[in-house]
Amino acid sequence: MIPKPLITYIETAIIPRYKEFDKAHNLSHVRTVIEESLALARQYPEADERLAYVIAAYHDTGLCRDRATHHLVSGEILMADSTLRQWFSDTEILLMKEAVEDHRASTDHEPRSIYGKIVAEADRIIDPDITLRRTVQYGLKQNPAADKEWHYQRFHQHLMAKYAPGGYLKLWFPEGKNAEQLKKLQAIIADEGQLRQVSTNIRGGKDNSGINEAYAPFHFRLWKRFVSIMEQSVLYKETKCFYNGTNRFIPSKQVVSYKRNNLFRRGVTKCSVL
Q1: What are the pLDDT digits (tens) for 81-134?
Q2: In this structure, how many other beta carbons lie within 10 angstroms of the beta carbon of residue 143?
Q3: CA torsion 116→121→123→129, rounded to 10°?
Q4: Confidence class of residue 258 from pLDDT cuts 50, 70 and 90?
Q5: Cα–Cα dist 150/251, whole Å
Q6: Using CA atoms, how far apart are residues 27 and 102, in angstroms rounded to an integer?
Q7: How far apart are alpha carbons 132 and 139 in whole angstroms?
Q8: Nearest-angstrom CA–CA distance, 217 and 80
Q9: Residue pair 125/33 in contact by the 8 Å Cβ criterion
Q10: Contacts of 146 (CB under 8 A, 6+ apart)
Q11: Does an H or E element contain 74, and which?
Q12: How confident is the model at residue 10 (pLDDT cuts 50, 70, 90)?
């Protein structure tokens, strides 16, 4: 049984931190990992669901610093949280810290406890649709300006390195649902034509530059909005733009230059063809 005051603390002080992270590690993600962790913990009599709950809640908090060492930073955050000592002994806190550190898929050692295996397995969440979408979303978050081919290559390379046969992903419960889902995902990865189509579908709403409006910075969304106007200005007369608070006439050649060098970083917010 998880104490209600502990749940209140986690829900108000820890879970909200995930609002600041990328879409692959957001509130929905942490809640899914908690749910899966508790489901696994209940299958093993030796596992304490209180510990499984806290480990899942803290497992990605280290993303506040960086991705490369987030599993270690998450462990430090948990260990340093004196509030947890209301419910857990020093031994239990150390055990939870180690489990958080061990959850990362690319870790070079087997989790040191059943709790590390539980959170690592729960964090996999191998649903082909979710896994593929998270992979695309992370790339868009990191490099929204990159073109379609760059995003596809990053998408493909990551999937091959992690999920393909021989990849670094390890499953600690071979009879679990992740094992069956991994087989389905591997079948998609093996079919490059299908994989390209999946990538294109997930990135839906892209413009000619390969930028997905949903994840691109604001100036790129503006850029798309005025591409047609800028192109018309080359063919016809001039363009009148609202530039840093003033109306200015901008020669066609200058508009083309602005288009190439990111028009909206130069202060243009509205244009119309004369």
Answers
A1: 999 999 999 999 999 999 999 998 767 789 999 999 999 999 987 889 988 998
A2: 12
A3: 170
A4: very low
A5: 33
A6: 21
A7: 11
A8: 35
A9: yes
A10: 139, 154, 210
A11: helix 70-80
A12: very high
Q: Could you tell me which of 98, 2, 101 has the C-alpha nearest to residue 48?
A: 2
Number of H helices, E strands in the chain: 12, 3
Q: How many residues does the chain have?
A: 274
Architecture in CATH for domain 4-122: Orthogonal Bundle (1.10)
- Mean residue pLDDT across the chain: 80
Residue 226 pLDDT > 90: no
Residue at token pair 């406890």: 113
Residue 100 CA to residue 149 CA, distance in Å, equals 35
For every residue of 207-272, DSSP letters joined together read -TTS-BTTTS-HHHHHHHHHHHHHHHHHHSS-EEEEETTEEEEE-HHHHHHHHHT-GGGGTEEEEE
User: Hey, what are 235's tokens?
Assistant: 């063919």
Among 152, 115, 128, 124, smallest CA distance to 38 is for 115
Q: How far lies 221's CA from each of 116, 142, 168, 209, 224, in Å? A: 42, 16, 37, 11, 5
Per-domain residue ranges of the chain = 4-122, 128-202, 218-273
pLDDT of residue 271: 53
The helix (run of H) or strand (run of E) holding residue 273 is: strand 268-273
